[in-house]
From TrEMBL:
This is Uncharacterized protein LOC110045991. Coiled coil: none annotated. One of its GO terms (molecular function) is DNA binding. The lineage of its organism: Eukaryota, Metazoa, Cnidaria, Anthozoa, Octocorallia. InterPro entries: DNA_brk_join_enz, Integrase-like_cat_sf, Integrase_catalytic, Phage_Integrase-like_Recomb. One of its GO terms (biological process) is DNA integration. PROSITE patterns: TYR_RECOMBINASE. SUPFAM superfamilies: DNA breaking-rejoining enzymes.
Length: 219
């Protein structure tokens, strides 16, 4: 699979770079999600880890139009197992996807990676700190109430990576999915039949994916 590219000024193509575990660690240190008072930082970290460990497209977890809870992610679409306080995995209900033309939806399981990059910990921390509201709203929203969109996700991602000394223009929202799939090979949903193959993957295999992807961080 080739890298995405764009055509900047001057007519030269620029390769898109994937978000790998290395970049994810840099984002962790930039946001300090476990030691910050910023709900926005905690929210962004939860979104970044869901994007990476879930192999999901930006359009599946951001809100780029008027919010419709029948199609877009809300906090009601997150279920922790065995429960919120003692979670070792969580389930996400994806109600609309590019590879799901009949809108059947699917349930995505994300396990703990047992380290600082853990998406289970990130999501748990975010939902415990973010205010719960009676009116349905997007899963990921800034403290101001503004939803996380593809544009704001890319903007914050690039700003954070630039602060870590990287060429931020080489990264975009697609970099999370690209990086995770590069690391995990066939576990991403890349072809028309991937949806069917993904839901047939044994649960114990899905739960173990984050741990395996971040094995290098434990050495």
């Amino acid at each position: 699979m080739s890298k995405k590219s764009e055509m900047p000024e001057g007519g030269q193509t620029r390769d898109r770079r994937p978000i790998t575990v290395k970049e994810l660690e840099l984002l962790y240190f930039a946001l300090c999600p476990q030691f910050t008072d910023s709900i926005d930082n905690v929210m962004l970290w939860a979104a970044f880890t869901l994007a990476f460990f879930g192999f999901i497209r930006c359009s599946e977890f951001t809100c780029n139009s008027s919010f419709d809870p029948d199609w877009l992610l809300s906090r009601n679409d997150i279920t922790f197992h065995p429960n919120l306080l003692h979670a070792d995995s969580y389930e996400v209900v994806i109600k609309r996807s590019k590879t799901d033309p009949f809108r059947r939806g699917y349930r995505l399981t994300i396990g703990s990676s047992h380290n600082k990059l853990c998406s289970v910990r990130a999501m748990k921390t975010y939902l415990l700190q973010s205010p719960s509201v009676h009116t349905p709203r997007p899963l990921f929203a800034f403290e101001s109430g503004a939803p996380l969109t593809r544009t704001t996700l890319t903007s914050h991602l690039r700003s954070l990576l630039q602060g870590q000394g990287l060429d931020e223009k080489r990264y975009a929202s697609h970099s999370f999915r690209f990086g995770a799939a590069t690391a995990a090979g066939t576990l991403g949903r890349w072809t028309s039949d991937c949806y069917e193959r993904y839901i047939r993957t044994p649960q114990e295999v899905l739960v173990s994916v984050p741990y395996k992807l971040t094995a290098s961080t434990r050495h």
